[in-house]
Structures are given as C-alpha cells and as structure tokens.
C-alpha cells in the first residue's frame, strides 16, 4: 500500500489508494482518530476495513482487529469521530487492512482497490 501524508495544523490525513489484505502500519505511536472515508465504489461486493490499535504490523486473519467497518459494494463509508472534539484515542498505534469478509478471519483482498482516507491528530 502506498500512503501519502498531508499535514494541516496538527491534523494528518493518510490517503491509501490500494487498501487490501496486506496490512499497513501507519503509526507506531499514540494518535487520535478523527475520521475515515472508505470508497468501495469499484467493487460490487461488500468490503471490510479492519483497524488495529497496535504498534506493529498485524497478522490479517489472526490478529483480532479493534474495529471492523463494513463498506457496502458500490458505496462509500464516511465516519466522523471528532464531533465533540475528542476523537478516538489510539494509545499504541494505527494499522489497517481491507478484506472481503468481516471479523478476524477474513484474509482475501477486494477484487478492486478500496480508497481509504484516515484523519488523525497527534
């Protein structure tokens, strides 16, 4: 996966054009998750975005994700976690992967790329 980092004040936007079953470690340090957008418009089947609060690269299929978000086929998912200004504390780090089955066991990449954007603050 190839992430690009864009910083505006103390908010960092992480854009991933190739979210798949290969896990990506974004940060190995404390962060606050402010929001995410997952674009599954290039797939007819549902995809599942797995997020880990972890400081090492997780093992997809065996590392239990802290969150799993379903993204319906052909749709986008937009979540905002900072409506009260606090966000979601990621005390260890931030890692993600995108697969075709929910839960811990899913290990298959979506047929087409899923675009994932995360916003974090230090």
If you had to describe this structure to a student in words, what would you say it looks like?
- The chain has strands at residues 3-8, 11-19, 24-27, 31-39, 47-52, 67-71, 76-80, 88-90, 94-99, 114-121.
- By secondary structure, it is an all-beta fold.
- Strands 1, 2, 4, 7, 8 and 10 form a six-stranded antiparallel beta sheet that branches. A four-stranded antiparallel beta sheet has the order 3-9-5-6, with no helix packed on it.
- The radius of gyration is 13 Å and the shape is globular.
Short description:
The protein is mainly β and 122 residues long. The protein has a single domain, classed as Jelly Rolls (Sandwich), CATH 2.60.120.
Q: Segments where pLDDT lies below 50 for 5+ residues? A: none
Share of residues in strands: over 45%
Q: Write the CATH fold name.
A: Jelly Rolls
Task: Give the C-alpha Rg.
Answer: 13 Å
Number of domains: 1
The SSE order reads: EEEEEEEEEE
List the helices and strands and how they pair.
Layout: E1 3-8, E2 11-19, E3 24-27, E4 31-39, E5 47-52, E6 67-71, E7 76-80, E8 88-90, E9 94-99, E10 114-121
Antiparallel strand pairs: 1-2, 2-10, 3-9, 4-7, 4-8, 4-10, 5-6, 5-9
Keywords summarizing the entry:
4-stranded antiparallel beta sheet; mainly beta; globular; 122 residues
